[in-house]
Amino acid sequence: PVDAITNRSKESNTTVVSSFSDIDLDAAAKAATGATLALVFINADSGEHALTVEGKAGDRNNLSAWHSEYSLVNAVAALTNNTIGVVNAVGPVLVEAWIDHSNVTALIWSGVPGQEAGMQLLVDVSWGDYNPSGRLPYAVATNQRDYPAQIDFHSSSSITQIPYNEGTFIDYRHFDSVWITALGRVNLHL
């Protein structure tokens, strides 16, 4: 997205400073120092065992972002009072470690945006050219305890048995049934 952001920034004579490491908090802090706006990208990916990345293969085992990226958001937000979290993920991700930080002013949930169209859309949303009104296809809770199942799944069985005891009370229906306000119902857009 840095190319699309840089190209758009040239129109307003805005300087873009980037840090491409999601684990180097010092580099992130250096890039954020003195910034009037910071976009912090976090990621949680998965696949169907077709690819193994950093020891992760197949479906996600938990709702965490990769590389402790919560620390990244908090490090940048500590230095920039207008920090926007951008979540690139295939499903829900825990945001409780940073969503209530006073300097996190917005959250853009971009899903898996793609190389070109998704990044241009991010620029259009960030600059106010487009007001998103979509809905996510899944519920996102504010806190991990709000999810009905707490799973860090590891199985030695070749056939996994999953008891579906929740009936129809999944996703938003679960949150509604136990009076939990899902993050997406309040202020979350694509």
UniProtKB/TrEMBL annotation:
Gene Ontology BP annotations: cellulose catabolic process
Presence of the UniProt keyword Hydrolase in the record: yes
Domain of life: Eukaryota
Enzyme class: hydrolase
Pathway: Glycan metabolism; cellulose degradation
Sorted UniProt keywords: Carbohydrate metabolism, Cellulose degradation, Glycosidase, Hydrolase, Polysaccharide degradation
Molecular function terms from GO: beta-glucosidase activity
Reactions that this protein is recorded to catalyse: Hydrolysis of terminal, non-reducing beta-D-glucosyl residues with release of beta-D-glucose
Enzyme Commission (EC) number: 3.2.1.21
Occurrences of domain Glycoside hydrolase family 3 C-terminal (ranges): 1-172
Keyword ATP-binding: no
PANTHER family: BETA-GLUCOSIDASE, BETA-GLUCOSIDASE F-RELATED
Recorded family membership: Belongs to the glycosyl hydrolase 3 family.
Record's protein name: beta-glucosidase
